[in-house]
Please model this.
Amino acid sequence: MILKGLAYIKGGLKNRYIEIQDGKILSVGSSRPSDTDIFEWDGVILPAGIDLHVHFRDPGDTTKEDFYTGTLSAAFGGVTTVLDMPNNHPPTDTAKRLKDKLRAVGKKACVDFGLYGMVGKDSLKMSELTTHFKVYMSSTTGVQGGYHKKTVADLLARGCDVAFHCEDPDRFGEPGDNLPGYNEQRPSESEVSAIRSLIDLPDGNKRVCHVSTRKSMELARKASCVVEVTPHHLVLSEEALLGPFGKVNPPLRGIDEQYELWEAFERGEIDVLTSDHAPHLLEEKDVEFREAPAGLPGVETMYPLMLNYISLGKISLSTVVKAIAERPGELLGLKKGRIAEGYYADIILIDFREVENIQAERLHSKAGWTPYDNFRAIFPRHVISRGEFVVRDREFVGKRGYGEYVTGVT
Ligand code: DOR
Ligand code: ZN
Ligand code: ZN
Model:
């Protein structure tokens, strides 16, 4: 197949023919190849998103999400590679559990995926199956938190990457009953304190997840960590009228902090955007604030929200593509995240004129709600994963089990 249109190549939009064969990009050129199977696109051709932080709840909580609905939701949002977190029930903290999870979710995945192991006693054995690890420094959904520095050091020495959920429980305050109260309960100082403790870890591929303030960002850099930020910390604050639906760890911060984070994003200081897609059901969230679980769905809305901000001139296309595709691809060490020769043909076709309001009923997560109700967004019209359409004309045309385990140890 050949795609023809205005494609994002090396930092800019250029009219190109993109030749795809065996799931990869064979060539990108300006003259018409002899092949007649040409798909001409009148909009913009972009690399598909790579989301390094999702919770697809499989195994253990498949009423909230499973690997099929999670990856389906990803596909509709223009994300064709996801990395799934290990806070399952039971947690993915042994080689056996990781193997079982891989076998089970592989049959359901519609897009490519990787799996995190939870740092713990069995980490080194798990590192034969995955190179991605997660540390929870405090309790959060399904985990108690805590870790041994020695284990992390061993994993880093083996070339594994380690992602940290940074909150220091010693800095937590009294339980809050609304979003500002929750921000005080798990304050930004607790994040700062947790990140500070990473400074003496050995060098290696370390990442601070969902950084929520500029100060945390600066400290994460000091600790030689990759900086990850979520759309919710960029576009929502404790002032959002979401009640328990806005409850997330780390919490939504004040409007000034949110704005500073956005400015840092504009300056290109955020390495990776991830959704931290953490679905809980509508009925689980629609309860007293204190009873509600923390977490928001977001894998399907991340890229579409950002595409709308691009069209409004609030952020540049290159900043978004870098954080949503290029850098995550580099961090995975995969030929993904760019439209270039030799790369996987993971591509989205969008039309900047197709702006719509986000509506929960049109999304595909089992969560059944979104914190971005009525936000403007641009969803991809077509999504291509390894050279195959998985979404065509806004319809799913992919297959359960098509997704490959791409980030494993080979
Ligand atoms: O709010 C959160 N929800 N933060 C996390 O770290 C976990 C996540 C979840 O799995 O629900
Ligand atoms: Zn987290
Ligand atoms: Zn998370």
